[in-house]
């Protein structure tokens, strides 16, 4: 007996309107991130040498390879839940521990102050720290905004605050300092951060010794495997800027730090100094001039 063919549905005859989104493999996202960092370093070195032609050629090559947009997509991939989630989860935990924020479900302390947080290098307005509206007022900036809630702004060009109200209680620099391709520029970024922290709010909650605070996240090799930086040196640089360590967490890939800004920096400079050496080490460095 001949089998009757079922009539095809309309959707079967139609080409798919959208393809399922392809995800980058972690190998692909790592390669994109590394290539972008390497080329940015080369571009800045060419600018420093006054070699405008090479700098332009490298800038073109960065764009041809997808530019900052693709780099951000690769970084966002690293924030996905199955790859460890977004780093602000750690900040939230520390703020919770310090009683700076409370879960909405168990807000018993009605005197909780609203804190101002500046997230430099923000990829999402829906990360963990953004869930505490009413307790944390977020300002998010990035060189390239990924959408509403994130202003396109270079932190190094953000106008300096004129009043305490324009300052912040928490500044997040998560995987941003290592994005800066030049060691002296990294130092400038850290110095600049301290100018945006407000100490006048300390009296509100003097027993809370973590605020104003800087949340710093770096790839672990910047601190563990660099010829020019180890943790001791990082903490000394931060301390000279008036930033005292309050919390830290080390994972196989990242190091997270929370510093309290005491406002009592020594103003001491930090140059490029070899702290150790080895064949497979990197040259990550922070220079404070
Ligand atoms: C690796 S992504 C990190 C994103 C996110 N914070 C995280 O932890 O995954 C680094 C981001 O920092 C941004 N960035 C670097 N320097 C910046 C600056 N001077 N001002 C604003 N954003 C900056 C870059 O545009 C990039 O989107």
From TrEMBL:
Domain of life: Eukaryota
A single GO molecular function term of this UniProt record: rRNA (adenine) methyltransferase activity
Main location: nucleus
Keywords tagged on the record: Methyltransferase, Nucleus, S-adenosyl-L-methionine, Transferase
Annotated binding of S-adenosyl-L-methionine, by residue: 121, 142
SUPFAM superfamilies referenced in this protein's UniProt entry, alphabetically: S-adenosyl-L-methionine-dependent methyltransferases
Gene Ontology CC entries for this record: nucleolus
Matching Pfam families: Bmt2
Entry-linked InterPro entries: Bmt2/SAMTOR (IPR021867), SAM-dependent_MTases_sf (IPR029063)
Cell compartment(s), UniProt: Nucleus, Nucleolus
Region: Disordered, residue numbers: 1-30
Record carries keyword Transferase: yes
EC assignment: 2.1.1.-
Similarity-based family: Belongs to the BMT2 family.
PANTHER family on file: 25S RRNA (ADENINE(2142)-N(1))-METHYLTRANSFERASE, S-ADENOSYLMETHIONINE SENSOR UPSTREAM OF MTORC1-RELATED
Described purpose of this protein according to its UniProt entry: S-adenosyl-L-methionine-dependent methyltransferase that specifically methylates the N(1) position of an adenine present in helix 65 in 25S rRNA.
Classification via HAMAP family: BMT2 (MF_03044)
Name of this protein: 25S rRNA adenine-N(1) methyltransferase
Native source species: Massarina eburnea CBS 473.64
């Amino acid at each position: 007996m001949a089998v009757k063919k079922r009539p095809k549905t309309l959707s079967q005859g139609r080409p798919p309107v959208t393809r399922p989104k392809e995800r980058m493999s972690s190998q692909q996202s790592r390669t994109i991130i590394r290539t972008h960092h390497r080329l940015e370093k080369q571009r800045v070195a060419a600018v420093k040498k006054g070699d405008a032609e090479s700098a332009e050629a490298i800038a073109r090559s960065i764009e041809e390879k997808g530019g900052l947009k693709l780099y951000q997509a690769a970084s966002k991939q690293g924030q996905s839940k199955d790859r460890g989630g977004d780093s602000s989860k750690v900040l939230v935990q520390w703020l919770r521990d310090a009683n700076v924020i409370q879960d909405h479900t168990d807000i018993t302390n009605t005197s909780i102050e609203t804190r101002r947080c500046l997230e430099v290098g923000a990829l999402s307005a829906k990360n963990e720290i953004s869930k505490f509206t009413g307790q944390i007022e977020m300002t998010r900036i990035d060189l390239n905004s990924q959408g509403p809630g994130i202003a396109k702004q270079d932190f190094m060009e953000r106008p300096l605050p004129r009043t305490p109200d324009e300052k912040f209680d928490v500044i997040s620099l998560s995987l941003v300092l290592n994005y800066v391709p030049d060691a002296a520029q990294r130092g400038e970024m850290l110095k600049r951060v301290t100018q945006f922290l407000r100490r006048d709010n300390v009296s509100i909650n003097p027993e809370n010794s973590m605020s104003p605070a800087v949340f710093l996240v770096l790839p672990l090799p910047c601190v563990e495997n660099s010829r020019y930086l180890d943790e001791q040196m990082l903490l000394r640089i931060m301390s000279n800027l008036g930033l005292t360590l309050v919390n830290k967490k080390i994972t196989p890939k990242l190091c997270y730090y929370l510093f309290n800004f005491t406002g009592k920096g020594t103003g001491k400079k930090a140059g490029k100094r070899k702290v150790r050496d080895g064949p497979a080490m990197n040259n990550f460095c922070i220079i404070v001039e």
